[in-house]
Amino acid sequence: MQIKLHKITVRDLTQGYEDNAENGVLAFGGQLDVRPPYQREFVYKEKQRDAVIDTLTQGFPLNVMYWAVRDDGTYEIIDGQQRTISICQYVNGDFAYMFRYFHNLQPDKQQQILDYELQVYICSGTDSEKLKWFKTINIAGEELTEQELRNAVYAGSWVSDAKRYFSKNNCAAYNLANKYVAGEVNRQKYLETAIDWISKGNIDIYMGNHQHDPNAIALWNYFQSVINWTKAIFPKYRREMKGVDWGTLYDKYHEQNFDAAVMENEVTRLMADSDVVAKKGIYHYVFDHDEHHLDIRAFDANTKREVYEKQQGVCAICGKHFDIEQMEADHITPWCEGGRTIADNCQMLCRECNRRKSGK
């Protein structure tokens, strides 16, 4: 791999800047691909973006950027997308810095910014070399998410099309499922969630198998099916529904018939139950009735001590004496049968008896 340092002025960098869905993000007279398929979306917040412009206006050095030469002689950004877009947007008049747009500056201030020289390392080599370099140099920048790294490793037509559905602000996936999927679109969380669901957790295998597919329609159709099924089964939305593993539930139960009204009644009852700690787990429990999803409230230390003293340290089942550290609190009437987590419904059992009782 060959690496050479170049000085690129802001004037040259911003020439021909465009950002649109059809052509992507281009700069440097249309010769620089600012957002190759493996790159994340623009994620700088206002404070970070302003820091870039502040650096330019004061003439301070900006961190070096890295470009790679393509086979056709054009370039793609390996590192520096966020800074490049910040600069181009400012010069283009997309936002103001210190309450002034670029076109409002005095001519000498404009020239100062346009003449600013960026330090750019330009490298040439194989795709695998460029991707390896990309992952290495980003360690020192804003940490990449696992899915952003996967997008780099499996870059191709499939990733490019998948990002159209799942990775852009106000994309189709966000508009459909923002109440049900947790995480940020532009940090690839929606894409990661969709692939995790369809692949049953084997994200890398799925992306490797589909890397060169012409499109990601199958993934988008599956994602729509999951969300639409969820909305049909649970038409009343609650904030606890965000982040539930809906893909797993869909795969297990979408071919079965459920009465939405019955499901809603059970959800309502469980949401009102103070013994249910993990409210989000209700949406799994109503299908398989496994209490582990609910994290049923445990007896507190004071209740355990109170009941232990009443029992004089004797296990309520085997009748043997134990230290309190060797005993566990148990619901006399199980929670699933209406038993509450209160002292009157508590008994202290030795660990062995409690295990046998729980296993029945």
Query: How many β-strands, per DSSP?
Result: 9
Termini gap: 66 Å
Main sheet properties: 7 strands, mixed
Low-confidence stretches: none
Computed over alpha carbons, the radius of gyration is: 29 Å
Percent in strands:
5-15%
Return the average pLDDT rounded to an integer.
90
Q: What does the overall shape look like?
A: elongated
Q: Which structural category fits the helices and strands?
A: alpha+beta
Strand order of the largest sheet: 1-7-5-6-4-3-2
State the helicity in percent bands. 40-55%
Count of discrete alpha- or pi-helical segments spanning 4 or more residues: 16
The succession of helices and strands, N to C, reads EHEEEHEEHHEHHHHHHHHHHHEEH
Mind explaining what this structure looks like?
This protein is α+β, with helices and mostly antiparallel strands. The chain has helices spanning 10-14, 46-58, 81-92, 107-114, 127-137, 146-153, 157-166, 172-177, 189-199, 203-210, 217-233, 246-253, 260-271, 282-288, 301-310, 351-358, and strands at 2-9, 18-20, 24-27, 32-33, 65-69, 75-79, 117-124, 327-331, 346-350. The strands form two sheets. The chain has a seven-stranded mixed β-sheet. It has a two-stranded antiparallel ribbon with strand order 8-9. A hairpin with a 5-residue loop joins strand 5 and strand 6 (75-79). Helix 2 (46-58) packs across helix 3 (81-92). The longest helix is centred in the middle third of the chain and has 17 residues, at 217-233. It is elongated. The mean pLDDT is 90.
